[in-house]
Design goal:
This protein has two domains: 122 residues; 143 residues, Heat Shock Protein 90, CATH 3.30.565. The strands form two sheets. A five-stranded mixed β-sheet has the order 2-4-5-7-6, covered by helices on one side. The termini are far apart. The longest helix has 40 residues. The relative contact order is 0.09. Helices cover 53% and strands 17% of the residues.
Amino acid sequence: MSRCDAYDSWEPENMLWLWFLLGVVFSGPLWLAVIWYARRIRAGRLHPDRRANESLAELSQIVGGLAHEIKNPLSTINLNLELLSEDIRRHDDEEHRRLTRRLSIVQNEADRVRQILDDFLRYAGHYELSLSNVDLRDVVSELRDFFLPQAEASGAVLRTTECSDPLPCRLDVKLFKQAVLNLLLNATQAMPNRGELLVKVSRNNELSCVEIIDTGTGIPPEQLETIFQPYWSTKKGGSGLGLPTARRILREHGGTMKVESDVGKGTRFVLSVPLRKTPTKKG
């Protein structure tokens, strides 16, 4: 069989085997985990409280392991797709350019699956916090400098305000920045016609707070709780795990995340974490 004959097999009607294989690889193990959990419930082996929590933790560990296992063949698929694409691009004619475009679609979908798996592992994985003593003002200042170019590129005006007193906290700085960054990205995406993004750092009794306020489209009242549900998203191509992951990171730090919104005016997220207790100096 000639090389052109082989490329003809990439016609849509001849690619059903590929889509079937990808579907089995990506969805099969997750469905097995769901079926396993359903059978546990049906068998009456779960206690309403402690046993249920233990089983949920066990299921999370199993599904996380399955996600890691899916990434292994996915890496092989991506590598072979790239090699095949390089081979096809050596031929500069319309037929091979058409094949390259179709192969690019498959590569993009495989990359999207990888991103979904990465987002899921960040959400469902076990967090081992690497805590350090920091001033929350410094953490937010570093994140502001990092995010400023992206805010300007999106047309948003980024402003920050902070209190004058230190805000000593014990944070996993990397994870905490990830939570705040998720909210900053959501805020800029909620302001398609430019807008103002305010990041406010303050103290509230024994809590240190970060407020993220945008002048975007706002969130309808009936969606204010729904937005924290995994895989719920109104954005095309969104994973629906950004907000649930951010809230989980706050909870891992013993903190909270609250949201207020007015449709057509904007949204305000408040992230609160406990202040670190410092020993009082004896006079």
